[in-house]
Specification:
Aspartate Aminotransferase, domain 2, 2 domains, 353 residues, 5-stranded mixed sheet, Aspartate Aminotransferase, domain 1, alpha/beta
């Protein structure tokens, strides 16, 4: 460690993002990017905004985008917070809402950035084990806490918790902030955003990186009661008043306006997912029920790490986690039909070895 590092830097265990290799002709199924690409209206809006106006700072409040999100989700713009990707939004949530006297709760198998934020902001936490079927059991969260957070669908499992279960959780934790991270909800789940009208402790986080094909633009948002949003605005304006550039604001706004393209893209990924699940099952894989744009699968006769390496040698990369309970699973992004076909063909070859 460098002698100039602070004690905070010395103590961090940073998040490791999915690999972004610079290789030609690679079948990249490791970071859950959308194979469909962004709406043409998004690209047109960005082109139109590429002008001399880029010399000016963007709107620090991104009111245009908040209005577009509010209109789409039938909420007031004052209930919306936006940031530089949902990871930044989550970072502000951990500092502004989840840094409490009591430990916060989240699943033992979940988005691996959560414990990183806890380390960065010194937030006490307790992990709650998923069931043997890798599901969240609401009753396990019936204990004193400083807040609760989990993705729905969960990551990296892809498993979905029903809206009625989340409402039970909200009713049983009226004095704690409950954060539902809906990065993948558009691929098979039902958003809990309509519940914010009845539960002032509910905060919902979404991203434009997945279902809206804008991972390269870096836009995320949260929807909740104005008191929760105000806390996030206070943190944001103490950190970076201009998290979104002009191109991000207009591009993201256009994405919410093109509902037809969004629906077609979403349905395309869902259809490809169901086809891939069927093909993997036929090869002997156990595939967890997925409501996301990826599947989580393991084969009883093949070591997952060796399979991931064998796929890589064939020009296909998937995500493998060397973590307890899930080290025999592969997380496979739903790509194009051609990419999924290449994956299945490679797996057939590997399983014959």
């Amino acid at each position: 460690m460098n002698r100039f590092w602070s004690d905070v830097a010395k103590g961090l265990s940073p998040y490791v993002p999915g690999e972004q290799p610079k290789l030609a002709n690679l079948v990249k199924l490791n970071t859950n990017e959308n194979p469909c690409g962004p709406s043409p209206r998004v690209l047109a809006a960005i082109r139109d905004a590429t002008s001399d106006s880029l010399r000016l700072y963007p709107d620090p409040s991104a009111e245009q985008l908040k209005a577009a999100i509010g209109k789409y989700h039938a909420v007031d713009a004052k209930n919306v917070f936006v940031g530089n990707g949902s990871d930044e939004v989550l970072a502000h949530i951990f500092l502004g809402l989840l840094k409490q006297a009591q430990p916060i709760l989240f699943p033992d198998i979940t988005y691996s950035f959560y414990p990183v934020y806890c380390g960065l902001y010194q937030v006490a936490y307790e992990t709650i084990p998923l069931t043997e079927d890798f599901l969240i059991r609401i009753g396990d969260y019936a204990k004193p806490n400083g807040g609760i957070i989990f993705p729905n669908p969960n990551a990296p499992t892809g498993c979905l918790l029903a809206l009625i279960e989340i409402e039970k959780l909200l009713r049983s934790n009226p004095d704690s902030v409950v954060v539902i991270d809906e990065a993948y909800v558009d691929f098979g789940g039902e958003s809990v955003i309509p519940l914010i009208a009845n539960y002032p402790n509910l905060l919902v986080v979404q991203t434009l990186s997945k279902a809206r094909s804008l991972a390269g633009l870096r836009v995320g948002f949260a929807v909740g009661h104005v008191d929760l949003i105000e806390a996030l605005e206070r943190v944001k304006n103490s950190f970076n008043s201009y998290p979104l550039g002009r191109l991000a604001i207009v591009g993201a706004s256009a994405a919410f306006e093109d509902r037809e393209y969004f629906e077609n893209s979403r349905k395309t990924v869902i259809a490809s997912r169901e086809k891939l699940i069927s093909e993997l099952t036929a090869l002997g894989f156990e595939v967890l029920p997925s409501a996301a744009n990826f599947v989580f699968a393991r084969h009883p006769l093949r070591d997952a790490e060796k399979s991931a390496l064998a796929l890589r040698q064939r020009g296909i990369i998937v995500r493998h986690f060397k973590l307890p309970r899930i080290d025999q699973f592969l997380r496979i992004t739903i790509g194009t039909d051609e990419q999924c076909a290449a994956l299945v063909s490679a797996l057939k070859d590997i399983l014959r070895d």
